[in-house]
Fold this protein.
Amino acid sequence: MRSTIAFFSTVLLACTAGGTTPDSSTESHLSSTCTGDAASDEARALIAAALPDGKTPCDLGRPNDALDAIYPASIAHDPFRASIYERLSQQPLAIPGTGKKIAGSLAGPHPVGRALREAAALWDAPIADDVPPAAAATTFEGALAAFGGADAPDTSAIPAALKDDLRPVLRALRAAIDLRNEAIPTDADLARWFRAPLGMFVQMREVVPTAQKIDLRRPADRAFLVEQVRYDLLARAAFVVSEAVEGLRDRARTYPGSYAFSHATPFGRIVVRGTDADTYLADDPSLAGELLLLVDAGGDDRYEIPTGATQSPSNPVSVAIDLGGKDTYTYVKTVQGVNERPDPDAAGRRPAVPRHSLSEIGRQGSGRLGIGMQFDFGNDDDLYESLRLSQGSGVLGVGVLYDEGGNDRYAAESVAQGAAHFGIGLLVDGKGNDEYHAYSVVQGGAYVKGVGMLVDHGGDDVYWANPGNTYIADENRIAGHDYFYDYGIAQGAAWGRRGDYPIDGIAGDGHASGGVGALFDLGGADKYTCGAFCQGTGYWFGTGILWDDGKGNDETYARVFAAASGVHFGLGVYHDDGGDDRYNIGARPEGLTLGAGDDLSLAWFEDLGGDDRYEGGRYSFGSGTERGVGIFLDVSGDDEYTSSRKGGFGSFDDPADWNRPSHPRFRLLGAGIFVDGQGTDRYTRPTTPPGQTCAGCNWTAQSAAPNVFGAGVDLPRSE
């Protein structure tokens, strides 16, 4: 039996004031499409327990044509939209099964190849199962000759076993170059397209001259990005390289000795060194120019040069392989201790607030207009330091950073640590207690036509993306909705180009859907910290996913638009597999977290078990505002909920005029759903005594609009 109880009366009062129950004959625009798999069945059953009579879990999807009568085609169906966004928005119950499938596919041999396959599928550029091997070469020297260059070099210093094992890698590089060249139109202005996409980032708009910037209203720019670039070939090129390099690792051979080889080719230099503790410096003549391939056989090495990073249009592929040792990957720092951000390189910092880096140098797995990949094998503790466009960054290309294991530390500023724009950016880390420290568009961050993904295979990890300071002016960040929030785009977040929103005082330069930003952590007790637009958040048709697949006791901190938040047509997903977790305890969150769908967005939050503690602000815990859908599921455990503001907990909030039958949004779906499964739970809200329980409670609310409602349930502990 469904009942309304005093504990949640504020939800009902806020939602039903002035409203009436709609006639059952009112036309419905809800999606009837529903999927069926084991992961979805559990969610379906929990949601069904909360819903009002006449509603089913299958009613929570939004048809892909729902916006056609309200918005122009440039918004309703722009060509950059990811298919996963459309599928999951239409079928929310497919979210648990989809995430579980991806997480399962990431585990196993050849982790880079697995991650590339999943990322390419999310990019709508799937890698074929029958990718042919690169053309054969009988000798190392024969494979080397395929790149051209000066007279045949003396390769006698390289151990015979290493030369033999590198032959497949060289063949793969040659194939990747050909695929990249085929992917980019032959008449393209390569110099322009190497830089132009950077100007679309808020953080980098000043480094690109106006004449080079992309304008999506310009037919030539739009055609290049939508019709002419072969994204599938770029993904395939990276996969061919990953298969060869991971095959090299499978051989598990060592190549001891002190030796060095350097050979210049038209595509970049090929360098091979032995097992000494090497230091790679920019003024070393044997490293002059750009790198096509760098192989270090082992030792505790220090790299002060860009590795695994394309540096110009004529450097289409760049791959670095370190076979072992405690390594440091860094750069030449010109001034130290300027502020809390990483020390600048020669490009310096913006002189005025916000004082972000002006660097354009990609490092440590950076693919710009090509393929940049870095592989670090072994289980030693490594350090990675850079500024922008690094550590798994793809911009009109594919960038990959892979570290096999160890307790590693990653530090960067923006567009890094699994970030992409018109590309794929992957950071894949094996087991170990790792630290990720960065600022914006990082740790699984994506912009238009990008798939940014961070995959960590286990360990007690720390993810930090500048949370800013809500209460003081912080010169070190890009302002978000107001000056006191950071546009993080981090830890599984994606955003798109909202063409009617002024950038540099100019509006109307073209709408473009956001990409897919994802963070998959496959085990451990982890800590996530960010400010805004992070932790499974999507903005402007972007899809953000944070998927924590371990059962450790995790901690999550954020302030606003986080932990499953959809904003302005966005899709946000947060999944935790279990453990006694803490969400925003002491973070003083403002709101729109923990399953908050705003303005025709969808947000899905699920925690599958454990005794959890939650702190939220307004419009949290399953909230739908302005025809958004917000879903919050805590499957089991003795949980505690604290909210500093009214609203949320299975509620909705819409402008009053939208409830007029003549309003174009009148029939659109809007819902807030809150479900707490079995357990003894406590709630502290502004309108209730601290620590009140609500076992067996069920509450619903219906708007005057036919498809807008709120619902919640706290299921009692089963005997």
